[in-house]
Amino acid sequence: MLYAIKIAARYLSASKAQTALLVVGVAAGVFVFIFMSALIGGLAEFILARTAGDMAHVTIEAEARTPARLAPPPGRVLWADQPTTETATLRAAENFLPLIEALPGVKAVSPQIIGSGVLRRGGQVAQVSIVGLEPGRESAILDLARYRVAGSVRLGAGVVVLGKGLVKDLGLSLNQSVVLQSSHGVTMRLTLGGIYEIGAGGADRRMAYVSLATARSLMALPQGLSRIEIKLVDLYAADASAARLRGLTGLPAVSWTREGARLLEALRAQKQTGYFLKSFAMITIVIGVASSLMLSTYRRRPEIGIMRAMGASRRFVVGVFVLQGGLIGAMGGLLGAATGYGALLLFPTRENFRSGTLPMDITQGAYGLAITLTVLCAIAAAILPARAAARLDPVTAIGQ
């Protein structure tokens, strides 16, 4: 084996320019593989952070019940009343919170009370969606702390957190008072404690975040919850987790994939595109190594014939060329991985992704996988030339 390695190394060093060119070609393929892995992985992380990363993966929400209409008998008139404003609630849901939090794969749980209302400041009026969150869990689902632009997103008694667009529309500033009236007619004077900016105009102009206790008073809800939002460690496990929650609690748990089916389909298509691009990079490596070793086999036919005449077995000859392929793959793989890693250091980390820049994720470069696949592909590419060399007739080869 050691002798075969020496011969393989000598063959490579005998044509240094050709070997260097081949190693650089393999390194280029590995660089493309690593670059595409980091780009596809980083793009997926960026999309998820801006979409599924800021939404609940499983939602348990009370369904509003609409009373059935009664058809009056002929000649009769039924009493007509105004529609009820009663908030749909999960009355026993709070009892299940410890169970939900203890389930494997659950990252965060956010009990909420939601409703609608009107925000007033002087003559300025804006219709808003009221969201009551438990203090300390303000960023459990939507990371309000990350989107904070002024003040604090910490919710407490008499505090409201609003979007930058809504604050601008009402002419508000931090620590000013504002009147919030719910659809139930309950009115409270609150202080603007924090301002956030998600970047989505609708959310920044529509949402008013208050504490759970404040929302309970506004919605005239002495007990129960409107909604429980759950974030998972693995968002792709949402369907299984929702089914498990329905079985354990009997609550109407719904996976994000029901509403986000198109997003999920786009992410899968993106991943498949990455596989195709990386496969083409590996195919390029195979073709380059195979063609080079075929040329080397043709040029070294007399030497191969002498080795065979001196008693070298076909397996030995095959081993020499396979080792050549492996050495080329290893050198090219290491060079390409080092170059790819160095190039990716120039890009911002995934924690600092910004719109308008390539969302490269250096942690998803798949360096070990790239080197391993490169060596295996180079060895596979060497098999055909190696078998061709082993089949050479010693007498015919020496005569050439």
UniProtKB/TrEMBL annotation:
GO cellular component: plasma membrane protein complex
Entry membrane topology: Multi-pass membrane protein
InterPro entries in alphabetical order: ABC3_permease_C, Lipoprotein-release_system, MacB_PCD
Residue stretches making up the MacB-like periplasmic core domain: 19-246
Keywords: Cell membrane, Membrane, Transmembrane, Transmembrane helix
A Pfam family that the UniProt record links to this protein: FtsX
Keyword check for Endoplasmic reticulum: no
Domain ABC3 transporter permease C-terminal: 280-394
Transmembrane segments: 20-44, 275-295, 316-344, 364-384
Principal location listed in the UniProt entry: membrane
Compartments (UniProt record): Cell membrane
Highest taxon of the lineage: Bacteria
Gene Ontology biological process terms from the UniProt entry: lipoprotein localization to outer membrane
PANTHER family: LIPOPROTEIN-RELEASING SYSTEM TRANSMEMBRANE PROTEIN LOLE
Family: Belongs to the ABC-4 integral membrane protein family. LolC/E subfamily.
Protein name in the entry: ABC transporter permease
Source species: Rhodobacter capsulatus
